[in-house]
Structures are given as C-alpha cells and as structure tokens.
Amino acid sequence: xxxxxxxxxxxxxxxxxEGRTATRTISFFDPSPFRSxxxxxxxxxxxxxxxxxxxxxxxxxxxQLAVVAAREAVADSELSFDELxxxxxxxxxxxxxxxxxxxxxxxxxxxxxxxxxxxxxxxxTPHLYDYLVPSSFAAEVAWDHGAEGPVAVVSTGCTSxxxxxxxxxxxxxxxxxxxxxxxxxxxxxxPITLACFDAIKATTNRNDDPAHASRPFDATRNGFVLxxxxxxxxxxxxxxxxxxxxRIYAEIVGFxxxxxxxxxxGLRPDGAEMAEAIGLALREARLRPTAVDYINAHGSxxxxxxxxxxxxxxxxxxxxxxxxxxxxIKSMIGHSLGAIGSLEIAASVLAIQNDxxxxxxNLHSPDxxxxxxxxxxxxxEWPTRTxxxxxxxxxxxxxxxxxxxxxx
Amino acid sequence: MTTLVTGIGVVAPNGLGADDFWxxxxxxxxxLSPVRRxxxxxxxxxxxxxxxxxxxxxxxPSRLLPQTxxxxxxxxxxxxxxxxxxxxxxxxxDPYDMGVITASSAGGFEFGQRELRNLWxxxxxxxxxxxxxxxxxxxxxxxxxxxxxxxxxxGVVVTDQAGGLDALAQxxxxxxxxxxxxxxxxxxxxxxxxxxVAQLAGGxxxxxxxPDRAFQPFDDAAAGHVPGxxxxxxxxxxxxxxxxxxxxxxxxxxxxxAATFDPLPGSGRPPGLRRAIEGALDxxxxxxxxxxxxxxxxxxxxxxxxxxxDAITAVFGPGAVPVTAPKTMTGRLYAGGxxxxxxxxxxxxxxxxxxxxxxxxxxxxxxxxxxxxxxxPMTVSRALVLARGHGGFNSALVVRAAPGTSRHANEEVHDxxxxx
Lengths: 408, 420
Hints:
heterodimer; A: four-stranded mixed β-sheet; B: alpha/beta; Peroxisomal Thiolase, Chain A, domain 1; twelve-stranded mixed β-sheet; two-stranded antiparallel ribbon; 13 helices
C-alpha cells in the first residue's frame, strides 16, 4: 500500500499507531488561489518504487499507485502462480475520480491552458485514452500479474475502496474467480479537484495549521483534507489460504452497500441507510452488533458526515455503539476519495493483527452530537477480533464491511 | 433464481424510445453523420452517432439541468422510460428492495471540459458547484437512485465498452442476493472536443468522412469505428417478485454471463473472448447449437474483428450461427453499447426478427453468417451478446425468452431439438 506519510504497510501502520499526521500545505502546485490549501500528499517517486520509465510514461499517477501497491500485496501473499490458472485470477480496482490528475495536466496542454475550446489533438499524449477510461487501472494490474479472469474497475465515489473489495468477494463466492487482486487507488490532488470541493466548501480552509487540519468528530471541524493513496489485497477462499499455509490477515465475513437516494452530496442526519448497510453486513457475517470490537469510521471531518455516521452507529448497534471504540484514520492521512476505503480496510486488518486500534488525531473537543468513544489522539491496545469498516460517498453510497480475525 | 427484463428505456442515435429505435434498426436506418455538437472539421475523425432532437427540458425538471452532463440527462430519461414500461412506481417495492447499477466509461466528460476551461481560463471561483459530482463515473447511478427513491444496492462498473454487459451481470448478482428490482445498463457519451481528442488517442476512430464507409466491421474496408452516444437502461427483476406484482411484460431472461481478460499481447496465450463465450453458455446451461443469434462486439479494427470471428467460429463452427451488429447504425456507444445490444436481442426474441448489420460486405476470411443488408425474420429464443473493452476486457451474456411469458415461448420448447 501507499499512503501519505508512509510507503508500504509497515510505515503506514507506524504512522497510525503514533497518531502522527501526514497533512501539509500542498506542494504539488501553488495552492494559493484556492480556499483549501492543505492535503495529505505522498512523496512518491515511481521509478524508485520500481516502475519502469515506460510504465511511468504510460500510467496516470493513480494507476501507478495501484500497480505498486498490487505488487507489494502479491509479493506479501507469497502466492504461487504455478499453481494458479490465469483464468481463475481476477482484478477489481476502485477509484472515484480515475486519472483526474493526468487528465487535467493533458487538458492544459491540448487547450493551451484553457484558451482553446477546440482542443488541439496534435498535442495529446498517446496514452490519453487510458486516462479517459479508468478501466485501464485494472488492466494494468491484470497485465502485471497475468490475470485473465474477471477484471473491472468499480467507481462508486468515496465508497469505491470498500465496494471494489466487496465486489471481488462476491466473484470468489460465486466461483467466477479463485483468487482476486482487489483494492483501490486515487490521486486527486490537482487544481480542478480543489476547485470543485472549494465550490461546495467540503474541504477545510484551516490553511494556517495544516498538520492539525483534519479534525473528525471535533467541534471545530470544518471540512475534510484531500489525500491520495492506494491499498491492494490478495483475496482467496479461507480453505485455499489454509491449504497453502498462507499468512491470513483477516476474513471478510460481511459486506453490504445501500444508497440514500437523497442528494448527490448531502446526507440526512438520521444515518438510516448506513445503518441498514451495517445491519445487513453483520447479518451476512452472522454476528450480533455486540461482536464488533472496533469501528473504522468514514469520519471525513465534515459537519454533516460525522453526525450522520454517529447516528448510523447508534441506530445499527444500539447501546453497543457507546462501548465500542470508533476512530477515523482520515485525521492522519486525509481523504483519498475512492482509495480511502481500501486504506481503511488495511487499517482494520492491522488492528486485528496487532490488537491495537488507531486513534482519531486532532480530537480535543468533541462535537456534543458526536458522543461516542472516538479514541482521541493516541492508539489504544485493545483486543480486536471483529472490525466494522464503513464508507459514505457522493452519489449517496453507504457501504459497510465486517472483517474478522482468527480466534486468538 | 431467475432474472427477468421487465422494462426497457432506449436513447439511441437512431431512435428516442425503444419503439423508434427498433423501427429504425429493423429498417436498417443508420444515424452516423458529421458531428453537430461541436466543430469537428479540424480533427482526423468527423463522424458520430448523435442522439438527435433530445430536449432535456421537455423531460426533466429544470433544477436538474445545471447539475447534469448531457449523457446523465439521457440516462435519466432512459431510466424514466424503462420504469414506466415496467409499470413500476414509487410504491411498487420498498425503497431498499430496489437498486441502481450502471456502467460508465468517461463520466460526464463534456461537463468536465467546461469546468476545466472555467478553471484555467478564468479562475477557480468560476468552477461550478456541481463539478464535484456531475462528471464522475458514479453520477448516473446516483442521479437515478435519487429520482426514483431506490435505496438498495447500487454500483458502477468501468470496463470500457464491456461495461454495459458487466453492469447487467452485477445487477443479476444483487437480485440473487435478495434485491427485487435493479435498474441497470449504460448510457454514455463524451461527444465534446476534449472527449474527442481523448478518443482519437485511442487510435480506433475511423477517419472516413462517408457515413456509409466509416464503420464496417468484418469488412475488408474495416478501419476503425464511429463513436456515438446514448444506450439503454433496463429494469431487471427477480422472476418471483415480477410475477407477484403482475409485471405487465417480460422481455426475457438474463440466462448466463461470463467475463474474461486478455493476456498481455505477445505472451503467446490465446485471447479471452472464446472463454467468455463458453463461460456464458455454460452459465446459461445451453449448447452452442441452441444459440439462435450472436450480437457481435464488432470493433471494426481488422485484428479485433479477426479475434472475434475466430472465437465465434471456434465455438459455433464456421457460418453455423447468424451474427449481426446493429451498432453499425448507431456507432459504438461505449458503456451504452452492450446494454443497447441486449435490448436489440430481447426485441429480436419478441418479434422474431434479427436486425441487420449495415454498410458491410463480409470479408471472406470471416467465416460468419453475417446478417447484412436487411433484417432477417427468424424465431429467436436465445441470443448471445458480446462486448469488449479497450485493454482486453471481454464479456458475453446470454438472453433467452422467459418460459411461458413470451409470444415465442411455445416454440422455444420445441426449438432445442430442431436447432441441434
């Protein structure tokens, strides 16, 4: 995986456990024309990360992140490709905004910085079609590992990272694939993304204190901090993993997605649809709400979201919502749109592995309407076998996944 | 568990609404013409399949217009028509029993171009507040779910031009998991200068200026395709739920599906389309001889046409099954294309007639029974629809007449032996 503040799974987990933040003043371009000037950027050098010069030229940044993360996941899985029929290996990659960074860069070239409506094709990169249609992300990962089974990009806004993994589980369950490489990537830190979130004041304008700009559940929160990243997993049936003696991080035991059918960006305060998704995911997992040891929240840090989500937890889990630790890693690594759901699955899995729940950084004075245990500031040693991870996104998507570790 | 198609909404270059589309398609009436939506004269490709005479304001509330791209407006109208056709209203099912799953390729790209231009030519304060969602790939699913209060499982797949079939397959999966109705399919299009330049970069657009010579799959003259806009939205329902509510019509059943991915070129491994076809037939539980018609992907790129005709020939035998590509009339509709071909297949089942492939003289090396020139009357009980996406995505879907519900249902029972 690739996350702000850390490349690879180890660095990611250290950052979370130490409660450090990776949010900073935007360095990729001059952010001064924008209302929100902070983001969680990755110091990513694609060549150092192992990509060839040709791959770098061919792929948008988000595709590069996906490919590098998938390589780490496949290596970590110690999967033997000799024993795997390529037609039984599939790929699903989630992304909310695809190659938006590459598209904007290329748009500036062909339009001469917006001067031309009739943009000039003679200046276009030959790889522009792969930016236009982000199914190229999944194709790149599939080529890299010789996957010839079902391959797709799932793009459900900010729940893409959960939904892509949930989709892959479904393909394994129905027998369409034996092994899936599944995850998500987004690299949205570009002027057009900043401008569109500025226009609806979704992002924070706490530009004077970038390290403390993402404040989920805090009374002073005023929007999310844009991020970028990728996390990819190798998924296989439990029996297969046991048979080959694989290291099992966790089992995905429940997944459900619902839609609020309310507003493209707004949320109703009651959290009913997210609660419905949580209830369905738990039912699929055959677990009672009280079995949940930790909730990895969406916790974007917008006024609306954090209340919506708190209400959803109470609705779905009843009194248990007050007893279970809840935290938002977006407080540390920002909101990488379609990628974050997979980064949060990674955090959930690592919480199970380590019996530690990551904190919500920058939470000093909770919003009175957010009255759960959000694990403020410091990570907590906590017996963690079952984790609920949720996501909420533009378009009304509400997704919930239940992950479970081996009995300890 | 059986997935039925109980409603159809079409927005196609050669017809607004399923009836107009079908009449034009059977008549072989093509809609490829010089681009009107922008000035394409200075680009190497100048033809498109545009949806003509679409007045969004006549169908949609004015508040939706500033927040939607052209292709989303088309999708919303197609969804309205599909639900009306299915006789589904807000109270037919519980909101959680209904979901929306669509395919996208480039999102609302025209909207995106306008806002990029606003940003770079004027400044960030000129960017629309709707840019945050009007262009992204999930927009049609989100807007349809809001318009029709559908709170069930929703989804969006992006697999380039295979997407229209992949969305329907994902909708089927959700019906298996317990939903009662899923609105699904694809309506797509990025006919704006910026989208045009990006499509040109893909290297597969025809540079012919003659609408009759610009999109000729399986022809010796094949030299790329003409892009179009539009597609189809379908209402898919669990058969039990549809029977319970007395659905007014059933077009057919989604019987089997498979998706594969091609190996990296140069790997020496065979392309994946044949496996997709075999997988779909297997999932449907039908033998090749039981397929009455194949709706081809019809890339009109010589190598890709060869891969497709080889795959069809390998599975069915040379010239053993009629093959058609009505998309020669509309152009390739990206994520909309597969869904529109499924509609054509279902209407072929309903009416016992197969639409033609126009402007094509089959090259001898493609050993296909290509239905060219005019529509062919024939009993159709089972159709195979193929769709492929840039990079190696292959999808295949079998649709068949639903037993006891179609005009041709009785024939279907006897057909299996006849056609074997």
